[in-house]
Design a protein that fits this description.
Number of domains: 3
CATH class of the largest domain: Alpha Beta
Order of helices and strands: HEEEEEEEEHEEEEHEEEEHEEEEHEHH
CATH superfamily of the largest domain: Ribonuclease Inhibitor
Strand content: 15-25%
CATH topology of the largest domain: Leucine-rich repeat, LRR (right-handed beta-alpha superhelix)
CATH architecture of the largest domain: Alpha-Beta Horseshoe
Structural class: alpha/beta
Distance between the termini: 26 Å
Largest sheet: 8 strands, parallel
Helix content: 10-25%
Number of helices: 7
Radius of gyration: 23 Å
Number of strands: 21
């Protein structure tokens, strides 16, 4: 965080990144003194309603955050900023998005939790667009011109007023991560899916909360003790927040966690919290063994849609194959329940030193009717591309000398099929699981871990 004194005194001269949050009601004009160097400007958490036309003078500005302000329209000056590629205006009061507000190099647009009812057709001219985050608005339709954004990989349209999911979304060549829960067209399905898979109620007074394990956009996770029938078990408790997240509504995540059911590649849900003193929703889950860790970190501002791995991260073929098998098996199970995970990323996968993997974080999960075969297949093939991205990242860090001959070739071929620009040519998870299982078994014959059920004792992380 920078200060206004630093800005006005010239102390920030030559800065490439500035963050100011002091309840500002006007754009600090001293920022223009940084026009030749500033690349990232964060003005989130103020009370701004407009930006000056002179912003186009910021010739190197690439990233602009103005979340949690009081804008009612996306400023048109943004469309004249020559290098601007990432725009974040989450949690304002934006109703209007003009076609003139979209800069030519736009790559990442965040308008989560606003009042937007319509997107301009000009969104289709944003040829570089990769991430579009629109959850928590009032959209009733999507402009068909969006289909022209052939590089679009992540789309968040949950918690809007959409009456249907456009079929042309399933034809977009790069779309990999999609969230659409909490819209009228899927609300009935979401509720019925949840009640089709009831889970026990666990009274709040049976839980003794201990230390915090983690916090995500949708909730906070604590370690806890569950006292029941004179027995005590160690559990994890996730209490959901009420706010719209970038992925959607916390209640949609809760419903998906319950409806997902049991699978060795998923974190077991033990029950739903009842009688919380403030009425908060929550889940009681098994603990994941502490040897499990996140496979990667979320995408950075630079990587945009790709996860960030620890420098020097390396995996043998057996580990890569085992992770791929566990994740594909879990995704296949979800698809059989009519659930799209929506966020199949390495940073949402926990793994141990033997390659056992658990797919977590249902914040972007959505329900779809598996009986509508063509629609269901198209939705599943979107997630298959996300799996292809995961395979690509793991293969890049794989030592091919550590597994059976031809093992890496099999994985590389599978990756290529998953990443096909023609969505209808991608294999479904139900076809990939046997292939990966056979390859994992081949690794096991060479002294590597075999396919077995993940450890029973688990410890929750988020």
């Amino acid at each position: 965080m920078n200060t206004l004194d630093q800005l006005h005194s010239g102390e920030l001269k030559g800065a490439q990144q500035v963050k100011l949050a002091f309840g500002l009601t006007e754009f600090p004009r001293a920022i223009f003194e940084l026009a030749d160097t500033l690349e990232i400007l964060d003005l989130s958490g103020n009370a701004l309603t407009s930006l000056p036309d002179e912003l186009m003078r910021m010739s190197k500005l690439r990233i602009l955050f103005c979340s949690n302000n009081q804008f009612t329209e996306l400023p048109e000056v943004l469309g004249h900023c020559p290098q601007l590629s990432m725009i974040g205006f989450k949690s304002n009061q934006i109703r209007t998005v003009s076609e003139n507000a979209l800069p030519p190099l736009l790559r990442w647009l965040i308008l989560t939790n606003n009042l937007v009812e319509e997107l301009p057709a000009a969104i289709g001219n944003c040829a570089r667009l990769q991430k579009l985050m629109l959850s928590g608005n009032r959209l009733r339709t999507l402009p068909p011109e969006l289909w022209r954004c052939s590089r679009l990989e992540l789309l968040r349209i949950a918690a809007n007023q959409l009456t249907d999911l456009p079929t042309w979304l399933m034809e977009m060549p790069c779309l990999s991560w999609l969230a659409f829960a909490g819209n009228p067209f899927c609300a009935k399905l979401e509720n019925s899916a949840r009640f089709a898979a009831p889970t026990p109620s666990i009274p709040w007074n049976q839980l003794q909360i201990q230390h915090q394990l983690g916090e995500g956009a949708s909730g906070v996770i604590h370690r806890a003790e569950h006292f029941h029938d004179e027995q005590v078990r160690q559990v994890a408790v996730k209490l959901f927040k009420g706010d719209v997240t970038s992925d959607g509504l916390p209640r949609s995540e809760l419903n998906a966690c319950i409806a997902a059911g049991k699978h060795p590649g998923l974190i077991p849900v033990l029950g739903q919290i009842a009688h919380h003193p403030t009425g908060a929703n929550g889940l009681v889950m098994s603990l994941i063994d502490t040897r499990f860790r996140n496979l990667a970190s979320p995408p950075s501002l630079e990587s945009c849609t790709r996860d960030v791995y620890t420098p020097g991260a390396s995996f043998d073929i057996a580990t890569v194959t085992r992770i791929a098998y566990d994740v594909a098996s879990a995704a296949c199970h979800l698809h059989q329940q009519g659930i799209l995970h929506g966020d199949l990323y390495a940073h949402n996968i926990l793994h141990d030193e033997r390659g056992h993997a658990l797919l977590g974080d249902f914040g972007a999960a959505s329900f779809y009717p598996p009986t509508r075969e063509q629609r269901a297949t198209g939705i599943q093939q979107i997630e298959v591309r996300a799996f292809g991205c995961l395979l690509e990242e793991l293969i890049e860090r794989c030592d091919e000398s550590t597994g059976p001959q031809g093992g890496l070739t099999t994985l590389t071929q599978l990756k290529a099929h998953c990443l096909s620009d023609g969505p209808d040519s991608r294999p479904l998870f139900e076809a990939m699981v046997p292939v990966l299982g056979e390859l994992a078994a081949s690794c096991a014959t060479q002294g590597h871990p075999s396919i077995e059920t993940a450890p029973a004792e688990l410890a929750q992380r988020d």
